[in-house]
Amino acid sequence: MDVEELDYRRTPLGDLLLRRRRDPVLQGESVLEVKLGDDFLMSSRFTAGEIALAEHALAAVRAARPEVVVGGLGLGYTAAAVLAQPAVCSLLVIELFEPVIDWHRRGLVPLGAVLCADRRCRMLQGDFFARVRNGLDPEDPQRRFDAVLLDIDHSPRHVLDPRHSTFYEAEGLRVISRQLRPGGILGLWSNEPPDPAFQDALDAAFESARAQVVSFENPYTGGEAANTIYVARTAS
User: What does pTM read for this prediction?
Assistant: First the structure.
């Protein structure tokens, strides 16, 4: 298996690695992967869930010209799917790791040029969870949004940093709900099946919420894999 290390950085949460490998299972297809310590964060082979997050959340948005936030840049698939919607007025992407933003600006990842060329898109280095408490847009802390899409942790129960856990409780979700306009949408990606306890927390914090299972082909098992997309709406 051929592996090429494209970038490597040390971070407080572990070593961050961007690599390209030629996968024999995929007949030598080139696959980009992002790792944080021992955790696989993202693969260019599995992007259906990230794209579905944008599609399902934006389909629920009622605003004619929505202003959107994406928490977690990764390889850019959720952000690109947001910008593929012509009606979107603006996109603020909040990414913890400056190197990830740098990958896009340097063209190390395929969607970097698309995101950087779109004037609607602004990338901000910062801790999404801290920004939730202090205002998502540091240039305008009182600004509210029509949709916030989150793809940072593996799931509400499998978090990259223990400090994230309280966000997924009812009170933490009420805090993010206050960053949304009336009728605004919170969309969240999870690598695990629908979680009844998290659904209860969403129900307590939002006017309505649902979980949608998204299935896609898994060439490594010969079967299907699945992600969960949660979509919650604030009161109108």
Answer: 0.94
